[in-house]
Amino acid sequence: MVNLVIMESPSKANTVKSYLGSSYKVVASTGHVRDLPKSTLGIDIDNDFEAHYINIRGKGDIIKELKKEVKKADRVYLATDPDREGEAMAWHLAIALGISPEKTKRVTFNSITKSVVKESIKQPREIDMDLVNAQQARRILDRIVGYKLSPYLWKTVKSGLSAGRVQSVATKIIVDRENEIRAFVPKEYWTIEALLRTSEGKTVETKFYGLEDGKVKLELSNEAEAKKIFDAVNGKSFSVLEIKNGKRIKNPAPPFITSTLQQEAARKLNFQSQRTMRIAQELYEGVNLGSEFGGVQGLITYMRTDSLRISDEARDAAKEYIIEKYGDKYYPETPRVYKSKANAQDAHEAIRPSSTKHEPSAIKKMLTNDQYKLYKLIWDRFIASQMESAELSTVQTDFGCAGYLFRTNGYTVKFPGYMALYEESTDEPVHSDETNTRLPEMEEGDILSCDNVTPNQHFTEPPARYNEGSLVKFLEEKGIGRPSTFATIITIIISRGYVKREGKSFVPTPLGEVITELMCENFPDIVDIEFTADMENRLDAIASGDDTMLDMLNSFYGDFKNELDKALEGAADREIDLPEEETDIICENCGKKMVVKNGRFGKFAACPNYPICKNTKPLTKSGDSLVEKKAEVAPMKCELCGSDMILRTGRYGSFYACSRYPECKFTKQKVRSLGVSCPLCGSDVVTKHGKNKTVFYSCSKYPECTFSSWDMPTNEKCPTCGGMLFRKKGKNQLVCKAEGCGFKADIQGDSAADSIEE
């Protein structure tokens, strides 16, 4: 019997292939094969929102090859990702490939390990149409919003803009925070610190708390209040009023879900969400650990999940590891079980290592630096989540002087528990008098001398701008999007120019603020947090079979259409004055700060006095800012006037131009040697760029020598005729172009052609 397994990722397919026997063939679809068309809405709104899917352009060859494999197979396992997107991908594959229902089997792998793959393949199921419809509903909803709102923005703001359902809310959240910061009025407050010394000469720092009588807390709002206390206690002795010793238990954080992994990777590793998810995908799909560790292994469970559940096998393995590594006292009396949120999709486990046999330090040399950092973070968090709580010894000491109360808090770690391995970080600033320094031995009634008293002025600070971790946390708390979409949301609002990064923080651009104002005025539901969260809940209900796609879309579209019609009626009367983004570059012709403009080849700096002053400069990104791009001087002189040549970019790729342009218009295309000899004249073959920056290859003496090719020439010889072999463009295949030969071969292993970078 021939069994065909279709996955979406070639790397994951290679991993699974190594686990299954010869009766299984594993191939990859390289992502979706069908989608809505880009050029039209693709939704028949009047016919129950029927979606008109088409085969994705460029996927024709893949679909053709997959159809051949399906015909040869007795059974087809659709093993795409174990989430709604993966379920929809499996459904689209079944339709595009014409697989009969009796031949179609759906399998999912929570982790890519041999045992999980073999066990899952024994338990196939039908395609879950509730999950498919939840994905379809989201896709249709987002398509309607994007394709209907974007033309409104073109009419009112400028052409080329686009709007998105969840992205509009995310932009508004960042705009709202910026408005809070602008509206913030700082308030003055004071603190008083005292450095005390015991009779044995040990020092202790303490802070003013309030009145000694009744231990009333007192806020100091101005210098006069602070000075009154300073004058009263300065130079006087302090007495120990009370010492309270206590015990505090700190429990470990639960294992990661998608959102908390993104937050913690941002805090501890400075990873952006997109980077975190890309690396997690690599760890899930499989890494070659060498023969010592069983070859290619999937190192973590599926990374798109909001469930805190872990399997009994994983819990038992963690227990065994903890006891062996740290001892019995580091494992709790009863195993830890964490409860997921009410709306969590519990189809998958929390994110954890696939096996406790792959300790990070043991496999570090087989991982990239980023893979190791993220894997260790996931490992530490999971193991710590199963460990005993930490026990802290706390102490609170109150000092009295002149009727005023000063207080010091501190703690020492009595038993580290899980803190021996891991401690969760936070985005919130720490405003606490508590320290982990050991306080000197003191008793109630002791008198301490005062070395120094320092009053300090402070001002309250505005709320912090959102960063990668805090924005993800807010989106999760409010139910906006799903953890698997957070990285995409952030990427989109930045790429569209609605938000930019300043350091680690997100700041709205003038364009983002204008669009948010328009959306709030005309489409309040689209940018309403509660409305967006309710849409997510309804998508969850569709996935669980408690709601239908049609009911959900009908309830949304009626009000949305009314808002859209009303907004379009008034669009002609709106004149949006879009602020221009200033740079720090000064125009040398008229002394004004240049502004950012968008051209065919990206952003550039232009003088605001255009058309009187037509000065422009190329821009490049330096950190989070746009700066003037300094021209790269070429190792050649202009062949017409002898001036320096500089590197420029045009629609056909990079080229060298005379630095005296436009007075001298001499140009020369930038080429790179391929390290291959021309088959006609023996000169170097170089890479060149054609229309739309497509790469082709030609003789360096072109047009004197006429050799050129879209396929990449190699130094390998045809085993049939001895001619030059070419690497077929877009394919992993070598071909001979000698007349009458026709030799073809798939590239295996480390072919010489494999090492040449196109």
- Output mean pLDDT: 89
Category by helix and strand content:
alpha+beta
First-last Cα distance: 41 Å
Main sheet: which strands, in order across? Answer: 9-10-16-15-12-18
| Estimated share of beta-strand residues | 25-35%
Largest sheet: 6 strands, antiparallel, barrel
Low-confidence stretches: 748-758
Q: What percent of residues adopt helix (DSSP H or I)?
A: 25-40%
**Oligomeric description of these chains:** single chain
In DSSP terms, counting alpha (H) and pi (I) runs of 4 or more, how many helices?
Answer: 17
CA-based gyration radius? 33 Å
Shape: globular
Number of extended strands: 37
Tell me what you see in this structure.
Helices cover 30% and strands 26% of the residues. It has 758 residues and is α+β, with helices and mostly antiparallel strands. A 6-stranded antiparallel beta barrel has the order 9-10-16-15-12-18. The chain has a 5-stranded antiparallel β-sheet with strand order 21-22-23-24-25, with no helix packed on it. Strand 34 and strand 35 (724-727) form a beta hairpin. The longest helix has 28 residues, at 129-156.
Per-chain topology:
Blueprint: E1 3-7, H1 10-17, E2 24-28, E3 34-35, E4 43-44, E5 50-51, E6 54-55, H2 60-72, E7 75-78, H3 84-96, E8 104-106, H4 114-121, H5 129-156, H6 165-183, E9 188-197, E10 203-211, E11 216-217, H7 223-233, E12 238-250, H8 258-269, H9 273-285, E13 287-288, E14 296-297, H10 312-326, H11 360-363, H12 369-385, E15 390-401, E16 404-415, E17 434-435, E18 447-459, H13 468-478, H14 486-495, E19 499-502, E20 505-508, H15 510-522, H16 529-543, H17 549-569, E21 582-586, E22 593-599, E23 602-606, E24 616-622, E25 625-628, E26 633-637, E27 644-650, E28 653-658, E29 667-669, E30 672-677, E31 684-689, E32 695-699, E33 708-709, E34 712-717, E35 724-727, E36 733-736, E37 744-746
Parallel strand pairs: 1-2, 1-7, 7-8, 16-17
Antiparallel strand pairs: 3-6, 4-5, 9-10, 9-18, 10-11, 10-16, 12-15, 12-18, 13-14, 15-16, 19-20, 21-22, 22-23, 23-24, 24-25, 26-27, 27-28, 28-29, 30-31, 31-32, 32-33, 34-35, 35-36, 36-37
Helix pairs in contact: 3-5, 5-16, 5-17, 6-14, 6-15, 8-13, 9-12
